[in-house]
What we know:
Blueprint: H1 2-9, E1 12-14, H2 21-51, H3 58-86, E2 91-92, H4 94-127, H5 132-135, H6 138-164, E3 173-174, H7 181-186, H8 193-226, H9 231-259, H10 268-292, H11 295-315
Parallel strand pairs: 1-3
Antiparallel strand pairs: 1-2
Domain G-protein coupled receptors family 1 profile: 41-290
Protein name: Olfactory receptor 10K2-like
Pfam family, one: 7tm_4
Amino acid sequence: MENDSQTLATDFIFLGFSNPAELQKLLFVVFLLLYLVTLSTNTTIMTIIRVDPSLHTPMYFFLCVLSFLETCYTFVIVPKMLVDLLAERKAISFLGCAVQMYFFLFLGCSHSFLLAAMGYDRFMAICHPLHYNNIMTRRVCVQLVVASALSGLLVAQTITTLVFCLPFQASRKLNHFFCDIAPVLRVAFAHTNLSEAVVFTLCIFVLLIPLTLILISYLFILFAILKIPSATGRRKAFSTCSAHLTAVIMHYGCASFIYLRPNASYSSDQDAVISVAYTILTPLLNPMIYSLWNKDVKTALQKALRKNRLSQKDFQ
């Protein structure tokens, strides 16, 4: 019995979504449906890119990796959140909290760096079309993905170690629905200014540096598009970037609001709402944006559906 109480004392308690039971059940149904749609849309994008030879290009290779990251990203957060919506005690162990934060940061940071790689791909395709195929080879694309993953791994390892090496209060109540950096730091018994400064610096590295590279890429892209003589050509060039730009605005907008601000302005209610946006809505909207705004993906999807219908008729 004493061992059980000691184990429970090391748990973190989530206070996010501490609404009346009826509202929690409604949220469970809504978030479950959104999660299932997210899984199905991302899986569809990955499958279509994999099976359709016309989509075996660098842009769609990066899109496939992005869909994979977002599928894993939601898996780290949403299933536990759904369980907690129906549970009376919304708790997670010390180790479980550390693991959740580690994978959340790893996948989220990799996502940031991958968006920068996708921006570079668009820069090469529009500004240097004659050299595009020679530069953006399969090997280079894989190297960019590996570099994004290793950068995310390094940042996640550093931040998670810094946070969970701190002593924590006996009452570990997090005003959140998962183990994010700010809520966990707020229940640390004594976190130093140094640890806060290191975490903030790493967040700048993860968000501002990739975003700056993307903005520089799009500045050159804009100049290149304006030089295209025909309106149709300019429209076609810009259409290949619109989905990526939308994904960049959603990802960096939400993440910057959460992580690039002073600790004094922390608001648990605001953060919970924004966190729902980038943990549930963004992974849901990204594949829809890429599929709805992309002619190649829509064509490949229609082709796959027609092929599936024909095979069903032959089977019957």
